């Protein structure tokens, strides 16, 4: 194995793996501190997330959301932009999906309604990202600040829309009417049942295929098209991009639109797949979780799929912990998430010097 | 020679950077109160050696003595305490601080600044008198000319008690006249007993100013000479390890029609400051037009405008039949499609992307080309094949398109960029600093290629801070100072003194006296 290959192996797999492991060890210490046997907790977590059909279904269902927001953060990151606005873009994207799924003619075929509803999510997500993008590109307002602000704006907007516009007459809770049936994405257990396999019911639905499709698309787009090249060039060196005839301002706008659109897909899973109506805070936590997923997945779709799966496990397993153990609440997931972000993001290169010294020493150096 | 008058002594100093043996058992002794030159090619290990002295790096093994005392610095602070001062190639000054504030920086003393400032003011007045280093103290550093900023750096060192001053390529940013002024300061410092170590690759400076010279090659100290006992030819041979042709042979230019005509150009830089005004010239096919000038006198801005990176604010550029004005602009891509290639001044930041592979760097600027794209698909196999072929043509080593761009040596990076631009067979070539930070072997190669392009009938506009490069390559030389053209000479008639006068725009001698840029 050449040194180059070893280095990429270290950077791509070994390092993230060790970082996650460290985060888990730190979590174990937290468990010990609150008086929980970490081994027992791990068993519950793993079994709850992977041990049986329903648990696995939930894990994958959560993971689907993280894939969307993780991809969103990663695409922006390749252009050197830190999109903190996944939360808001997912929220408003859901509105786009809902508008299509509420008001299309119920008699229309699902083959038309579903793509249109997905497009609605993409479009609204993109629109919510375009203003921060414009402000960054042409006015120099930092995208981190503006996207955070847009998360709050999205919250306010959605409360207004749900309370004043979409709420059905006579309803007390701020949620929309049910979507038309043609927009419902089939549950995976129903699909399996139609082929004669019986698996337990879970919220897992076909949007997981949409997530896989977009992962592939993002990979192809970033590394196998000239636009992907332009985006990565801007991300690595603005001056070199300008020299190469690339307009960084346009790239910022285009990239943020793509990023926002990907975040806007969370609604596909949550609304079209499971709830079949629009309601408050359906997006809760996925936008921010996506940042951690992208960090851990090294902004590469394959890494994001793995990281999203891990976060799915944490979400589902964390819920089980809450259920099984008295002195653990669901918030332990937030602690674990925080530790993963700390070790995968903040202390990303903690082990790098040691690994390089032992596994890929420079030839000729004593 | 007695023990006591040795200022700095290095014994078997050794330093590795990974596989690179940057300093290989280096021995050096510098006599107190002398000017000692260290010459060598880029990458010979001069800067590493000095960084060890200044506490930036630690030697792997070996011994260092400063004024006969054992010395092992782990930070620049210890070096300063031992009496070593360093003037870096790129000044370490805070632009919007005054001269006084810059000098005090790092030795502020207590919590309140006023006291140390007034103390420093008195001390600086004394130093200025003693060494003839007059600088206005209450002016922001950014207002000063480069030569003056350098004086501030020297003052900073002296203020901190330096008895040994190390200067890394100090004349790179100066006009010949400013360099002479600097050398006068050296003489004054030497008289007062200050030891000066001068790192340079310019043999002319070594010959004219130093008492002793040491030559480094590939990490080794290959020779020590008394300057009076040697000559430039010998030093050049020692530096490179073989005889070199310092001047490239070229035939007479066959000058064709003008292909690039600039009229009354006015250009603002990225910050919106007017850096080029009233510039007119033309470049013809089959000639090399050199643009000389001290760094920062508008050549860089002009280059960027010609390449489409900066817009012009007035005037016109006629290029390959198109006319560029402030309203009708062409972007770098459109210019490339017209047959205008651009080798940027700043290789690291603009010419390549260090975190991209070589094949992706070789794609920069041409990623929309039809032959590598099929629909939406960028054909990576074609990109790689293309990179392989241009690497072959320009002898880029290692010949590996998948290697990270940053892992190539400076010379090979530059060859890759030149290959990318030359191999598309452009009609106009805009080239900035083609051999900056490139080893001598590659310099020869690059210059030959530029002349080949000229002989193939291309129009070449060449910007370089190396006067020697401009003079040996150009058929016609335009000199810029403060954004304006201050003279035009034929390549064959050019001599350093005249060009130097033009570069300083000697008519505006008032500036020289006050040291303030107009």
Structure description:
The complex is a heterodimer of chains A (366) and B (518). In chain A, 73% of the residues lie in helices and 0% in strands. Chain A is mainly α and 366 residues long. Chain A folds into 2 domains: 1-30 and 328-366, no CATH class; 67-303, no CATH class. In chain A, helix 1 (3-33) packs antiparallel against helix 15, helix 5 (110-139) packs across helix 6 (143-166) and helix 13 packs parallel to helix 15. The longest helix of chain A is centred in the first third of the chain and has 31 residues, at 3-33. Chain B is globular. Chain B has 2 domains: 3-240, P-loop containing nucleotide triphosphate hydrolases (Rossmann fold, 3-Layer(aba) Sandwich); 258-514, P-loop containing nucleotide triphosphate hydrolases (Rossmann fold, 3-Layer(aba) Sandwich). Chain B has helices at residues 46-53, 76-81, 99-104, 113-131, 146-159, 176-191, 203-209, 232-240, 299-306, 332-338, 347-351, 358-361, 380-393, 410-422, 440-455, 467-473, 496-503, 509-514, and strands at 6-17, 20-31, 35-40, 61-66, 69-70, 84-87, 164-168, 195-200, 212-217, 220-226, 258-268, 274-284, 288-292, 312-319, 322-324, 340-343, 373-374, 377-378, 428-432, 459-463, 476-481, 484-490.
Rg value of chain A: 22 Å
Instruction: Profile the largest sheet of chain B.
Output: 6 strands, mixed
Taken together, the total number of domains of chain A comes to 2
What's the CATH topology name of the largest domain in chain B? Rossmann fold
- Give the quaternary arrangement of the chains: heterodimer
Count of beta strands of chain A: 0
- Provide the residue-averaged pLDDT of chain B: 86
Looking at the overall shape, the CATH architecture of the largest domain in chain B is 3-Layer(aba) Sandwich
Instruction: Give the overall form of chain A.
Output: globular
Strand content of chain A: under 5%
Structural class of chain A: mainly alpha
Query: Percent of residues of chain A in helical segments?
Result: over 70%
Gap between N and C termini of chain A, in Å? 20 Å
N-C termini distance of chain B: 49 Å
Strand order of the largest sheet of chain B: 6-7-8-3-9-10
Poorly predicted regions of chain B: 507-518
Question: What Rg of chain B, in angstroms, do the CA atoms define?
Answer: 24 Å
